[in-house]
Structures are given as C-alpha cells and as structure tokens.
Target: Sulfatase-like hydrolase/transferase
Amino acid sequence: MKRITLLIVLLCMHVIMLMAQSKKPNILIILADDLGWGDLGYLGGTIKTPVIDQLAKDGIRLNRFYTAAVCSPTRAGLMTGRYPDRFGLRETVIPPWSKFGVNTDETFLPEYLAKAGYKNRAIIGKWHLGHASLKYHPLHRGFTHFYGHLNGAIDYFTHKREGELDWHNDFNSSYDEGYATDLLADEAVKRIRQYSQEENPFFMYLAFNAPHGPFQAKEEGLLKPRGEDDLKKQTYAAMVRSLDGNIGKVLETLKTLNIEDNTIVLFFSDNGYAPDSPGSSGELKGSKFTEWEGGVRAPAIIKWPAKLKGGKTMEQVTGYVDVLPTLLDIAGITEAPENPLDGISIYPVLNGSKSGIQRNFYLGEGALVNSNWKLIEAGNNNSIMKLQTDVLFNISRDIGERKDLKDTETTIYKDLKTKLETYNSIKSSKQVPPYGQGRKGFVAPKEWGVKE
Model:
C-alpha cells in the first residue's frame, strides 16, 4: 500500500512538472533608449552596470543584434515584425507636432499575443508610434494598460514635452511625482505583482526613456564633477546607473515571486548612443543616425531559464524585426499574419536545435548585413556618414569597419548590391514628414490629451 501511495505521489509530481514546463512563459521586453554599445560593463564600458552585466552572464548575449538607426523605426519594427520602410518610417522619428502614426492595418505584437492567452499586456514607458489620434494610442493597438509618455525626450522630473505634461495612466493624465526612470520601474513592479496572481501569462513592454536626452539625473546619483564637460559625463553615467539599478528592481521582483524561471526577459537598446551625448560605441564605429555598427548594432541579452541554456554568446544575425516572429513561435501562434513578416524566428538557434540561420538583414538607407559581410551604399544613407562611395566590410573579422573590400571581393560586392535593390525598392504610400515640418507655431494639446 505504501508503495502504491508513493507511486501515485511521484506520478502527480511528474504531471505537475510537465504542466509547469508546458505553461506559456511570461514575456518581459526591456528597451533602453540611446544606450551605446560601450556604455555597459560587460562590453568593456567604464560605467558600472552590475545588473545588466549579471543578466549577460546568466542569459544569452545576442552579439549580432541589429536595430534601425533611430528610435521610432526600431519601435515600429519591434511591434510589427516588419521593416519600417513598409509604412513610411525609417529616416526620422515621430515628433510632437506630427500627425503621423503607424498604419492601423499593421498588426502589433500584443494583438497577436491576445490570441495566445496573454490577458494582461502592458506598455510602461515611451510609446513614440503616434499620438495625434486615438487610433494610434497604445490601448487601441493591443495593449491593456499604458503608463508613461506618448512622445520622446520628455523632462525626467516634470514629465513635460513642449510645455505640457506628457505622463499618462491609460487614457488619463498621471500626476505622479518623481524621476521618470524610477516611476517606470515602480509601475512595472506593481503590475508584475498583480499579473503574477493570475493563471494567464503576461506580456510587458518596459520601454525606458533613459539615457536619452535631456540629460538629467538625480542629485544623489551624481559623483563629484570638476567642470562643465565632466558634469555632462557624470550626469549621463548617473542616468545609466539609474537605468541599471531600476532594471534590477524589476528582475528581483520576478525572483521574489518565483516566476523568474518561466519568464522570458529580452533586453536591448533601440539604437546606438546619440552623438550629442557622452555615450560610447566602444569598439564599434559610428553612432545613432548612422548605419555604421555603432548606430545599429545594439547590446542585447535574452534569458529564459526554463528553456534556454544561458552563459553563452550567440553570433546569429538577428534584430528588432525578429522579436515578434520569435515570440509568436514560442507562444505557439501558427496563424499566418495578414501582412507578411520580414523578421524570422530565431528560437531554433536559441534552443540549440539549429546551429544557425543564413540570412541577409536590411539595416535601411542602403545597408545590408549578414553573418560575414556588410554593404553600405553611398547616396542612400544619412549625410552624417559622409560616404562618397560604397563600402564593403568583412564584418565577422572587422567589427570596427576599417577596411573596405569592395574592390577585391567583387563577386560578393555585386551579389549584395543585387540583393539590396529589392530592399531599397520598398515604398510606402504614406511617409512621416521631415522632423522640422510643422514645428513653427505648434502648440501642444493640454496635457497631451488624445480626443479624436
């Protein structure tokens, strides 16, 4: 009788373990804003980032993770799994005075996840994908909760942009006081605690605005500066340290609630450091606004203890448009999307069932990269790059993009030029206007309330 009882107990435990393993994971995407490759300790930076460094040690370091060269396009590609060129958003962001928003016929990531049983789908932080109409609002794009700001470059203390409060809790203005990075982390912790009490898995998109300008830090976070230049550097470093510490609060909450093992944590930056900031691209060339590696190759880490073996570096070429198809693959969503995806699922590489996937990744503005080679065309890209002629790099060996090989590797050069034609031909019937268009005489709506 005792043996039978023991057998039943063991079988029950086995069933419980199988059920736990088969439960869909919680998903937490943590996005930094203008964080440079060289701003993190694990990539050789001088700013102390112990939390992100530990995440890199425990998780999988995505060493070849690419984004767009500027913010709104990356966020749009993340939400849709499609290159932002397809809906007219590649060269610039959506400024406060613009009525542009990502087309509503594009399906966003939380809309897909809703079909997979993700009841709670929160965006906490910076939106930047359209604010002039309710149809562009996060709560009309698949999210069930929104806390944060619609525009970019808000004041970290007053939470204002263009003189008006841009801080929201769902459709309402929020008058919460405090440093923006702290408030976003606190809200994330609050919601994780709430969502963890339910049976359904949750999805959270935690989009910090740090360390994007304006460069503002809490007084207690500053070291002792010696001069004006040093003050800017110290402010930026304090912003990065605050980001790191607040990510730590969120990750510690997962651990405290015993949901760390079955929560996917994906961390990355939306592009490289801004050229007007004291940030760093480290060993990479270039910055935000360029298709050099320093502008589009982002620090990125993924961790999922229940399914993915951490403590390693992955060299698979991947990036922002792959996030959606990878998560849909993991969530078991097999329904074909209405709009064909540009991204691919890299889950087979993450879990070790494939050693790699050969593919070309479009960086926009006449730039293409694959596992070995990178081509940047002259004339298509931002003038800040000052390219007089095309350049070809063996990027697997020349991470700093120092030696142009187009004149010696002519076959590869011609092949990539041909492939680029397809991507460069992508056009949209609607384009975001140039950044300054409509700025003169613009008056922000009261507390950035969206009514139409």
Q: What stands out?
A: The first helix runs from residue 2 to 22. Residues 6-21 have pLDDT under 50 and may be disordered. The chain has one domain: 25-228+236-361. The CA atoms of residues 110 and 142 lie 5 Å apart.
